[in-house]
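Figure S7 source data.
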Amino acid sequence: MKTIKIRYSSGRVKVHVGPGLFKRLASFAPEGKILVITDANVARAYGGEMKKILHRATTHVLPAGERHKTLAAAEAIINRLLELGFSKTDSVLGFGGGTITDLSAFVSSLYKRGCNYVAVPTTLLSQADSALGGKCAVNSGPYKNQIGTYYHPDLVIVDPDLLSTLPRSEMSAGMAEIIKYGLVFDRKLFRALFSAFSLPDVIYRSLKIKAAITAADEFDKNKRLLLNYGHTVGHAVESISGFKVGHGRAVAFGMYRETKDPGTRSALAELYRRFGIDINLPYSMEKIKEYILHDKKIAGGVIRVPVLRSIGKAKIVSLDVGEYIGGLL
Ligand SMILES: NC(=O)c1ccc[n+]([C@@H]2O[C@H](COP(=O)([O-])OP(=O)(O)OC[C@H]3O[C@@H](n4cnc5c(N)ncnc54)[C@H](O)[C@@H]3O)[C@@H](O)[C@H]2O)c1
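Tokens for the predicted nicotinamide-adenine-dinucleotide complex:
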């Protein structure tokens, strides 16, 4: 097991990474009451085991999918916590992919102005990226992450064994975020993805990068914006598709569109082929550009976005929205 410890201004986070950790969850779980938030697919695959491992926990199961990351779902969970008499020192445990961990963190940030929160991510995307960093939000209508807060888990348990049941398309989606870490921050990681690599190792390397970036810029003022590479276009694609196109695939599409250098574009295309990431999507750039106008990063007609300088290096630039949109390939 490897551990990453992060000190944020608003709290400390411990991340344990390693196979077999789910089976040992009881030894890491906080004292007090626990409400496990999960979705129907994860409950089907691991609900029985979770009951055996954490028999004192209660479980709240949501339908699977991004469409359920809503204020209404958050309110239903809050009502459940109230019914169960949870106090601030009791814990919400997000057990699922990014949809579930975003929603669980969001609820934890609101309940009694903040209760304990533990994340046990179950998709590659959430293990390598989204369960860490404290950003949590729900969607509003077709628009992504419009209502949100920053709230860190006290503990994140990353067990790659949980990925054995993940559909191939979701593995591909997770690889897209890992590619992003290599492309934007770490040339060696990017290169490593072209040959044989260990999945727990690239998950750990991605998390180390995210930990360093988010600790240096917890509230998205500067450096952290680099994590948004591919996300401006990606979020627009997710919205247009009515959330039928998942986050990872949409970000892969966005990274390709935001990358200008032809050599880097063909390296990306090669990795996409390697990991079965399909970026053939039927949405016109005109439509995508229309949705980008709703992006949270726009203020006063200006958008701050990451621009790639070379593989492993990027910078933040402020662009007039029209200029940014006009430059998309
Ligand atoms: N907070 C952040 O920093 C951050 C960063 C990136 C993405 N996100 C958010 O993450 C979400 C996407 O997360 P995701 O890609 O994990 O999607 P997801 O949570 O919707 O999961 C994808 C699918 O995999 C299923 N699943 C999950 N774990 C499984 C398992 N072990 N076995 C079988 N099936 C399993 C789910 O039921 C679902 O059908 C989006 O809402 C996105 O906005 C947040």
